[in-house]
């Protein structure tokens, strides 16, 4: 079975393509590696493919030349890269591509890191990369959770969309923009009116028309499905409030953050100016 070696190089900018010999330098290094390491093992050289002026944000197998190699490389083939950053978006992209090719029997060769995944040392290096990435993700997640818990303990809102009946107010906290929950009276008024009119037997279309007659601008009257959800959430919130001696302003964990906000229906958001 014929085994093929592919070279690959990405150039970041059009300037590199037109005014430097970066590609030629990388291609020469790849070909020299092929002659020294892979040709004696019976590989044939398919040349070095180039992705000119391609952003590193694009994963390897989504680039034109990278996609061609991914589609053509078969079991036993090898792909040579002059440098990690000339081939992959980041280490995560490297590991994702390596896992895909390893299952297919395609080896990866990184010249700058002296990695050859046909060897035990090369495969071990990939395992170390994977462990390092997982450790970094875990540490980032723990730092984010600790920061969120600290902010919540001080009364700040750290989740995304506010729960039904509340909206976000941005506050200047010693130079940092923080978020607090405040009651969304407009949203609750609309939902309460919908609930009352529906109990009178009006359809949602009639409810929408009545809201407009009552002074609601068309942009503030949400679609039927949103009105239905607001009405149901208003009933749930009233039930909660009936169990308490005072109106509850929820903390992050008390009401799910998946509730609808007035901004979903096109109502104006709370001013983002700092207070």
What does this structure look like?
Helices cover 47% and strands 16% of the residues. The protein is built from nine helices and seven strands, in the order βααβαβααββαββααα. By secondary structure, the protein is of the alpha/beta class. 26% of the residues are buried. It has helices spanning 14-19, 22-38, 64-72, 84-87, 91-104, 120-153, 185-199, 204-213, 224-242; strands at 3-10, 43-51, 78-81, 107-110, 115-116, 166-173, 176-183. It has two domains: 3-133, Resolvase, N-terminal catalytic domain (Rossmann fold); 166-265, no CATH class. The protein starts with a strand and ends in a 33-residue tail after the last helix. The strands form two sheets. The chain has a five-stranded mixed beta sheet with strand order 2-1-3-4-5, with helices on both faces. It is elongated, with a radius of gyration of 30 Å. A hairpin with a 2-residue loop joins strand 6 and strand 7.
CATH architecture of the largest domain: 3-Layer(aba) Sandwich
| Rounded radius of gyration (Å) | 30 Å
CATH class of the largest domain: Alpha Beta
Number of spatially distinct domains: 2
What does the largest sheet look like? 5 strands, mixed
**SSE class:** alpha/beta
How would you write the strand order of the largest sheet? 2-1-3-4-5
Spatial gap, N to C terminus = 72 Å
Poorly predicted runs of 5 or more residues:
251-275
Which range best describes the helical content: under 10%, 10-25%, 25-40%, 40-55%, 55-70% or over 70%?
Answer: 40-55%
- Order of SSEs, N→C? EHHEHEHHEEHEEHHH
Average of per-residue pLDDT values: 82
């Amino acid at each position: 079975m014929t085994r093929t070696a592919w070279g690959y190089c990405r150039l970041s900018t059009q300037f590199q393509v037109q005014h430097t010999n970066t590609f030629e330098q990388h291609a020469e290094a790849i070909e020299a590696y092929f002659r020294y390491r892979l040709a004696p093992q019976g590989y044939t050289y398919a040349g070095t493919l180039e992705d000119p002026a391609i952003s590193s944000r694009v994963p390897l197998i989504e680039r034109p030349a990278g996609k061609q190699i991914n589609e053509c490389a078969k079991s036993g083939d090898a792909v040579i890269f002059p440098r990690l950053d000339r081939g992959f978006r980041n280490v995560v992209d490297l590991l994702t591509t390596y896992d895909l090719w390893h299952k297919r029997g395609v080896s990866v060769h990184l010249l700058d890191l002296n990695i050859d995944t046909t060897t035990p040392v090369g495969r071990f290096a990939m395992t170390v990369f994977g462990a390092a990435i997982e450790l970094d993700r875990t540490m980032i997640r723990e730092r984010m959770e600790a920061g969120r818990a600290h902010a919540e303990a001080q009364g700040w809102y750290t989740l995304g969309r506010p729960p039904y009946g509340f909206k976000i107010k941005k506050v200047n906290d010693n130079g940092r923009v923080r978020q607090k929950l405040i009651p969304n009276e407009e949203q609750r008024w609309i939902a309460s009116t919908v609930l009352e009119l529906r109990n009178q037997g009006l359809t949602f279309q009639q409810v929408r028309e009545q809201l407009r007659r009552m002074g609601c601008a068309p942009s503030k009257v949400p679609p039927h499905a949103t009105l239905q959800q607001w009405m149901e959430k208003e009933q749930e919130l009233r039930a909660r409030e009936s169990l308490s001696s005072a109106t509850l302003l929820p903390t992050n964990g008390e009401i799910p953050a998946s509730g609808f906000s007035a901004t979903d229906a096109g109502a104006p958001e709370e001013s983002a100016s700092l207070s």
